[in-house]
Every structure is written in structure tokens, then in C-alpha cells.
TrEMBL record:
It catalyses: an R-cob(III)alamin(out) + ATP + H2O = an R-cob(III)alamin(in) + ADP + phosphate + H(+). Keywords: ATP-binding, Nucleotide-binding, Transport. Pfam families: ABC_tran. This is Cobalamin import ATP-binding protein BtuD. Gene3D superfamilies: P-loop containing nucleotide triphosphate hydrolases (3.40.50.300). Its EC number is 7.6.2.8. Required for corrinoid utilization. Probably part of the ABC transporter complex BtuCDF involved in cobalamin (vitamin B12) import. Probably responsible for energy coupling to the transport system. Residues 3-239 form the ABC transporter domain. InterPro entries: AAA+_ATPase (IPR003593), ABC_transporter-like_ATP-bd (IPR003439), Metal_Ion_Import_ABC (IPR050153), P-loop_NTPase (IPR027417).
Length: 283
């Protein structure tokens, strides 16, 4: 296992635990999607996994070494962290911005060399932003900036990519592009942990899903087993139907409108005319 988390807990102060008792492991080429409502602690957990916040309980082991015993450079060579998008004020070019990801591989006063620039260009190519490499990073679109941040993390040559709500504030098209890149990176050998509000993202990208609720994981396992109508109702307080779409060959999550009858279980037989006639009487 690359990453092993055992009974992890975190608090900002002595009053309230943000999360506790969280345990899971991450192997090669695995994708874990962490779902949960706003303010539940998903971003805090991601920062703890990146060794930015210290746990108050439990442990995080990186290649069987306690992450607290490792320095920034050691962690950054294994874990790439992509925070939620934030405003950039300095007009670095996109290429310069991505090149900053090579910092863990440089000496204290060293400048990037030819190999570092090659690695940065490879990362730019992986996310498909070659056409904007000379643009100032503070003048590109939100979707382009999110891809630039992913490229910067990839330039670190990590084994694990941590993504904190990578599709937040993006339009539908850019959301799909980012998710497709995450899926491709995992198939190419990278392990990924991402947080999201959207259950469909788990079906699109993930091997495993964790639902975070009440300061811990209320469910953890395969996406098809964890992302259920019951769990989503308990997590978000809304009625949804999970059905399998043969057109896209995956499960999809469909929210109900108020008063809408629940869709059938795709594993159950179609309604017969007699059954359909009974539905109004059953409401």
C-alpha cells in the first residue's frame, strides 16, 4: 500500500473534533472519491493527507513510514496536492507556474534545469494546455487554471494525487474534461484521492467511495455498493434514484422533484400494464 490511514482524527481547537476514527488504505492505480456535504471536513482531511495539518489522533503512513517523520520534500515527491482554485495575483506564465512543481526535486538554491523543464512540459501535455503555456496564469479561464494546477502537481512526479473538489466553480464542459483527465491518469498508473459534492463523479472516476458524515466515514467501499439511494438521502437529505444507463454504461444519480414517484430498481423487471395501472392507487 502507498497510503495507510488508521483511526485518524483532527481538531482545530480543544472544543470540537472535525473528524475522528477514519481508516482506509490506498494502493497503486486506485481512485478514492470522498463525498459529503459542505463543512463536513473533506478539505481538512485532504490537507491532513498532504501533511499540511497534523493529526491529533491516529496515524497516516506513507510507504509504511509515519508521515509526521517526513519532511516537505519527502512527502512532495510522493504526494501531489491540488487545492480548491484560488486567485493568483502574480503574472507568472503557465509554463513557469507548472515548473514550480519541480521544487521538491531541486536543491535549496538550485534553479530548474533542462530535465525539470522537460518534466514540466510533459505535465502540460498530459492535461492538454500546450496552447496557453505562454499566457499569464492570472489571465486564463477557471477551467484552464484548474488544469494548470493539476499539471503543476504532476510535475512533482507523484505517486498519489490529492484533489480537493477539483471541479468546483467549473462549467459542465470543464468538469467533464477534468474528470476524464483524472480517469486517464489513474489508468496510466497514478493513485488519486479526490473530494466532491457530486455522486455522479464517483461513478465516473472511482474504484472506491467514502461518504463522510458526522465527523467520520459512514460508508466506504465500491462505488456501486456505497453510492445508494439510502446513503445519499441520509447524507444530503434529498431523494434520488440510482439507475444504470446502458447508453453510457454506468450508474447515474437522478434527483427527484418534490412529490415525484421513485424510479424502479434497474435490477427489477419492467412494470407490467397491470402494475402500472396500480401505481396511482399505491401513492
Amino acid at each position: 500500500m502507498i497510503l495507510d490511514v488508521n483511526q485518524a482524527g483532527f481538531r482545530y481547537d480543544s472544543v470540537r473534533m472535525i473528524f475522528s476514527g477514519i481508516s482506509f488504505s490506498l494502493g497503486e492505480q486506485e481512485v478514492l472519491c470522498i463525498l459529503g456535504p459542505n463543512g463536513i471536513g473533506k478539505s481538512t482531511l485532504i490537507r491532513c493527507l498532504a501533511n499540511l495539518y497534523p493529526l491529533c489522533a491516529g496515524s497516516i503512513r506513507l510507504h509504511d513510514r509515519d508521515i509526521r517523520s517526513l519532511n516537505y520534500r519527502d512527502v512532495a515527491r510522493v504526494i501531489g496536492y491540488v487545492p480548491q482554485a484560488h486567485e493568483i495575483t502574480f503574472p507568472f506564465s503557465v509554463r513557469e507556474f507548472v515548473l514550480m512543481g519541480r521544487a521538491p526535486h531541486l536543491g535549496l538554491f538550485a534553479s530548474p534545469g533542462k530535465e525539470d523543464r522537460t518534466k514540466a512540459d510533459e505535465a502540460i501535455g498530459l492535461v492538454g494546455i500546450q496552447k496557453i503555456t505562454d499566457k499569464p496564469v492570472n489571465e486564463i479561464s477557471g477551467g484552464e487554471y484548474q488544469l494548470a494546477m493539476i499539471a503543476r502537481a504532476l510535475a512533482q512526479e507523484p505517486e498519489v494525487l490529492l484533489l480537493d473538489e477539483p471541479t468546483s466553480h467549473l462549467d459542465f464542459g470543464n468538469q467533464i474534461r477534468v474528470l476524464e483527465i483524472i480517469d486517464r491518469l489513474a489508468r496510466d498508473g497514478l493513485s488519486v484521492i479526490m473530494s466532491s459534492h457530486f455522486p455522479d463523479h464517483a461513478f465516473l472516476t472511482s474504484n472506491n467511495v467514502a461518504i463522510m458524515q458526522h465527523g467520520s466515514f459512514m460508508a466506504y467501499g465500491l462505488a456501486e455498493e456505497v453510492v445508494t439511494e439510502t446513503n445519499l438521502k441520509a447524507t444530503y437529505g434529498v431523494d434520488v434514484s440510482i439507475t444504470y444507463s446502458h447508453d453510457v454504461e454506468r450508474h447515474v444519480c437522478v434527483p427527484h422533484r418534490s412529490g415525484q414517484c421513485r424510479c424502479r430498481d434497474p435490477k427489477q423487471p419492467e412494470y407490467s400494464p397491470k402494475m402500472a395501472a396500480m401505481v396511482p392507487a399505491m401513492r
